[in-house]
Amino acid sequence: MAAKKHPIFDTATTLGKLMLFLGVSSICGVLIAGLMVPAVALTGNTATSSINFFDQLPDDMTVGVPAQSSVVLASDGSVLAKFYDQNRTEVKLAAISPFMKNAIIAVEDSRYYEHGGIDTKGLLRAVSAMAQGGDRQGASTITQQYVNNVIIQTYAANGEKDKIKLGAAKTTGDKVREIKLAIAMEKKYSKDDILQGYLNWVYFANNNYGIESAASYYFGVHAKDLTLPQAATLAGVVNSPTYYDPVANPDHAVSRRNMVLDRMLDQKKIDKKQHDAAVKAKIDLKITPNQAGCATAVRGEYFCQYVTNLILNDPVYGKTKADREKLLAQGGLTIKTTLDPKLQDAAQAQFANFTPMNNNPDKVGQALVTVQPLTGKILAMAQNTKINAPKGQWSSDYNFAVDRVDTKGQSLGGAGGFDVGSTIKPFTFAEWLNDGHKINEMVDASVRKYPVGYPWVNTCGTSKGIYDSNYPGSTDLQNAEEGWYRRLTAREGLYNSLNTATMYTASKLDLCNIQKMMTAAGIHLGENPNKPYDLSNTSSLLGSGEVAPLTMASAFATFASGGVHCDPIALVSITNAKGDKFPVPSANCKQTIKPEVAAGVVSVLQEVLVRGSGYQIPLNFPAGAKTGTTNDSQQTWTTGFTKGLVTSSWLGSPENKNRGNNDKLIAGTRIPYVDGATYAGKAWQGYMNAVAGSFDTGAFPAPPASMVNPIVVAPPTPVTPAPNTGNDKGNNTKPPAPTPKKKD
């Protein structure tokens, strides 16, 4: 701030005269900075002692940045949510209406640009009036009020409310110190700087600190757009924010506003015509309620919760969690995120078709989360509950889409993932190709027994699992439908989601390498992200492991991007009120899977939507997907992609993960069997068809020809060729295409 030069008063001379007049009363003390002073002259000795006392007081006060609201923004700059202890947005003096500046000076300190921090004339006038038995009058300047506000609000922001002194609690020393600080402030800062600071610090009732927040709350405008009657109303509030509160006491507010207008007219800051029109104006409030925290977010409240947890958990934003909470509530952070409002709204709208918030008696949970390949950006994160739902709707503290904790064990507010069912199968297929096997290589899907002691290969540890009806309590391995226990291609096994085909391919691989393939795609357990997907029991190859929807979307994005894995990211930038930038997590995009392997997997997942387990949910663009359904339909999934978007859609039971969802009320009806394509898939289809066209919908690269078909060794030529009888037409006929699966 620029240094101040004062045209009229030498502050040392002024204070010397003031102290000679005021001194210290032996009866009640001198309330120098207040509104009451003794109306008696003091002896020279007393005055000399007062001056010595004054000289020994500190005269330096650091005016820091006031506690300011933090704001969370979507990718387009729209506000998602605010956080604050004191609802304040700091603005420059040039961004404040001239009416407001003139009104506050007229009513609070008419000689503001003439005095040097204290107004001797005003103070003596107040003393004289009270000495003659008149009413108590104000004598505190804007600079003195500013000092008082800074002291009080700094204590409050630092959690030191016990140090705050108001009114009669202040000692004479406290008040004299404030006077000296006011004088020091006037020496250090310009008048405009002090006025700017005052208007940003002063309290306007209803948890509104500073003129920008007050203008927004009471009138729905920025401070620069305040009209004359609006500015006069707010200028009147600061004298007694409770008594002149325009919401609670509108009559008081109007009376005070008109008094402010009278002062402005007397001081020639407005003319008679402006005055009369403003006095006649209705107060015309347009209240914009103060709302703080993710529960009040405009959209994406669970995404907001996820973002704030990322900040509160990361030491880069403060040494302790208390420091980070203070930064969020007081630091004036601008937090720009990756959330796309159009996608978020489209995702949220899907739930009305299946599990609406106001008609979901069975508490069937549903979530959609979208990431962008090659960037890791989380573009949408929606679910069919609210953090604080109105009566009749379902409230949940849990974010269905994310892990329970981060890598340091600190809460992310997530449900911890759900059994993923058959959506895990593409990763075994990816390792099948990575190991040198072919897409159209024959596998024996008739093998259903994997008895105790089956020789699974796992160079990372041990794996076991029993599928054997000869063993008590076990059964042979099952597919969702009969008719598929036969030899077929690995391609058919994946797009038809055959358990026996997946288990057979795994039996020819090192399970350690399957696990490494999953890790390369970013898959980890939702309860503990430090742990890889657990293959110690072979049932996990078929999806009996809990993974969060965000993790599944990110993993499938690795396939959609040609093998480039990116960590999912929610933060684009964070800056504080001073413009300082904080680091944000990187997506760490790396080539973790061979491009040809990713292309091979994608080529088969595209067939899922044509003739496989997702044939009912095709998109209008080139796309691939995998459905998943656990036993008794406890958890159902569709995770799928275009070239530009990847979305994981989940429907299940978040509060009781072992409860099946068959016969539950979904989409206004109850059906006996729910699979991954039924509702999770239909939500995925409707959402992706609505939004994917705004992103890359190009064709995917084909896998190399050498990956598709195994080399066929021609049989030796027989010595005597068999005669052609003309009866082998059946040998030249392609087998009929299998009936599309209706279950997963």
UniProtKB/TrEMBL annotation:
Residue span(s) of domain Glycosyl transferase family? 77-264
Q: Where is the composition biased (Pro residues)?
A: 735-744
Query: Which Gene3D superfamilies does the record match to this protein?
Result: Biosynthetic peptidoglycan transglycosylase-like, DD-peptidase/beta-lactamase superfamily
Q: Which residues cross the membrane?
A: 20-42
Q: Which UniProt keywords apply?
A: Carboxypeptidase, Glycosyltransferase, Hydrolase, Membrane, Multifunctional enzyme, Protease, Transferase, Transmembrane, Transmembrane helix
Q: Which domain of life is it from?
A: Bacteria
Region described as Disordered: spans on this chain:
714-744
Signal peptide stretch: none
Recorded catalytic activity of this chain's protein: [GlcNAc-(1->4)-Mur2Ac(oyl-L-Ala-gamma-D-Glu-L-Lys-D-Ala-D-Ala)](n)-di-trans,octa-cis-undecaprenyl diphosphate + beta-D-GlcNAc-(1->4)-Mur2Ac(oyl-L-Ala-gamma-D-Glu-L-Lys-D-Ala-D-Ala)-di-trans,octa-cis-undecaprenyl diphosphate = [GlcNAc-(1->4)-Mur2Ac(oyl-L-Ala-gamma-D-Glu-L-Lys-D-Ala-D-Ala)](n+1)-di-trans,octa-cis-undecaprenyl diphosphate + di-trans,octa-cis-undecaprenyl diphosphate + H(+); Preferential cleavage: (Ac)2-L-Lys-D-Ala-|-D-Ala. Also transpeptidation of peptidyl-alanyl moieties that are N-acyl substituents of D-alanine
Span of domain Penicillin-binding protein transpeptidase: 483-634
Q: What is this protein called?
A: Penicillin-binding protein
What is the native source organism of this protein? Arthrobacter silviterrae
